[in-house]
Amino acid sequence: MDYLLTMPIPHIRSLLAKLPFGADRLVSPAVAVLRLSGVIAPSASSPLRGGTLSLAGMAPSIERAFALPNLKAVALAVNSPGGSPVQSALLAGRIRALAREKAVPVIAFAEDVAASGGYWLALAADEIFADPNSLLGSVGVISAGFGFTELLSRYGVERRLHTQGTRKSLLDPFRPERPEDVARLERLQREIHESFIAEVRERRGTRLVQPEENGVFEGEIFTGRRALELGLIDGLGDLRTVLRQRFGEKLRLVPVAPAAGWLRRRLRLAGADRGLGDIAATLAEGLEARALWARYGL
Questions:
Q1: What H or E segment, with its residue span, contains residue 203?
Q2: Domains and their CATH numbers in the chain
Q3: Which of 37, 58, 131, 266 falls between 20 and 30 A from 259, CA-CA?
C-alpha cells in the first residue's frame, strides 16, 4: 500500500486499467454482443437437449446485455435459418421492449444466414448490417412433413385414431391427405405470413424498395448486397469494424452468452445414459435443424 502511495497517478491508472474491474472498465464505451445463432424453437423440456433459440433460454442474457455499465449499444450477431414464428416474435419483442426502456440503440449483424425467423430477429434492431454474401429475407411460411399411408398398408399396419371434435386431427401423416385439412393449414400459414409482412413493413418502413415487385414478401432469399439495394438492410460490414468506426477504437465489445444449466453440464460431463425416446427426439431435432440449414446451402 505504501508503494502505491508513492507512485505517480498516471502509473496507478495504468495498473488499474489492467484489472478486470479497473477504472477504465467503467468509463470506456461498451457494446453488448448477443449471439443469436441456431434454429429458433420452443425451449426443450429435456435437460439434455439444447442448441435452439427461444425466449426462455435467451431472456437472462438479453436482460444482462441491456444492464452493462456505460452501454452505447446492443449488437445482435444473427446466424439463424429460422424456425418458430412465435419464438421469433417473442425474442424480437423482448429486445425492442428493453431497447425502448433503456433508450439504447440496437444494431444487428447478419452472418451466414438471417432468413425467415432469423430475419425476424434482425428486425428487432434499429439498423441491420450484413456481409455481401450473407443470405437474408425468406419472408414467408413453410410447413413440411411426410405421408406414410402406403408404407403402413404394405406391411399390414392399421392406424387407429379417435377424437372428440371433427377438426381435432390435422394432416395426420398416417392417413391420406384431405383437401379440407390442406385448406385449414393454408389459412393458418396465411395469417402468420401476414403478421411477418406487417413486422417487416413496420420495422423497415420507407427504406423498403418496391417489396411486392421484387418478391420480398414471397419467401425470396437475397444476398447481403441485393438486400441492401432492396432496403432490407442498412449497410455492408462486419460487427467489429462497423462498431469501432462508430464508437471509437477504445470500444469494449462484451459478449453476453447464456450459461449452460447445472444439470446439463453435469450430465454432459458424466455421459449420462439416455433413453431410446430421448435419443430419437434428439435425432429428429437434429434432422429438422439440418433441413432448415440445408435450404440455404449450408
A1: helix 179-204
A2: 23-142+208-294 (3.90.226.10)
A3: 131
Please tell me the distance from the alpha carbon of residue 131 to that of residue 122, in angstroms, as a whole number.
Answer: 14
Tell me the C-alpha distance between 239 and 109, whole Å. Answer: 6
Q: Determine the average pLDDT of the residues in 58-72.
A: 96
Q: Which of 204, 91, 87, 80 minimizes the C-alpha distance to 135?
A: 80
Q: Could you identify the residue written with the cell 465489445?
A: 253
Per-residue pLDDT of 103-156, as tens digits, reads: 999 999 999 999 999 999 999 999 999 999 999 999 988 777 677 777 767 777
Compute the CA torsion angle 60, 65, 69, 70 (nearest 10 deg): -160
Cell 421492449 appears where? 97
Is 167 strand, coil or helix? coil
Please tell me whether the overall predicted TM-score, pTM, comes out greater than 0.70 for this model. yes
Cell numbers for 50? 439444447
CA proximity to 30, closest of 256, 234, 237: 256
C-alpha cell at 267: 450430465
In angstroms, the CA 95 to CA 100 distance is: 9
Give tens-digit pLDDT for 224-262: 999 999 999 999 999 999 999 999 999 999 999 886 554
**How far is 146 from 156, CA to CA, in rounded Å?**
19
**Cell numbers describing residue 71:** 452501454
124: helix, strand or coil? coil
% of the chain with per-residue pLDDT over 90: 56
Task: Tell me how far apart the alpha carbons of residues 218 and 64 are, in angstroms, rounded to a whole number.
Answer: 36
Average of per-residue pLDDT values in the chain? 82
pLDDT on residue 164: 74
